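Async update (no meeting this week)

Hi team, since we skipped the sync, here's where things stand on the single-chain job. The sequence we agreed to prioritize is pasted below, unchanged from the tracker. I ran it this morning and attached the output directly underneath so nobody has to dig for it. Comments welcome in thread, and please keep replies under the output.
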Amino acid sequence: MTYRIVLFFLTLLLAPRLFAADGFVGLRLSSPLIASGTAGVKFGEADGGMRPVIQAEAGVGGGKLAVGLDGTGQGSFGLGIKAAMLRTWFEPIDVDEDQTFLGVELEASIQRLLLSLGGYRRISDGDDDWIASTGIGFLF
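Output:
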């Protein structure tokens, strides 16, 4: 399983060389993932607007895959909205481990500082039907 995660992150980092896209990486502190690293690819022209994006995040408490529209990390202010699948493992904050959730995440950025807020519904076995996610991060 670990090699699949590494392979996926490498694919995200190499995709900009294969397509008309921009890659990005960042670090985050969030619930329920705790500390995490993120990598993604934004497609299309960098005109300051919202662009299609694919993003992966892995942290102490779980991992997340997201697709959506993103204008964060560009200029002085940016917004993003993404559909995401979140999987918990090890010791997530306020959520049981080994659960899978689907949800929506909203993001706002000031320069490269990223703030996020999301809502998720459990789709696997477990006790937590709904969870909220909040986070702060930095894009490189």
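Quick observations from my side:
The helical segments are 2-18.
Residues 2-139 form a domain with the Porin fold (CATH 2.40.160).
Reply here if anything looks off.
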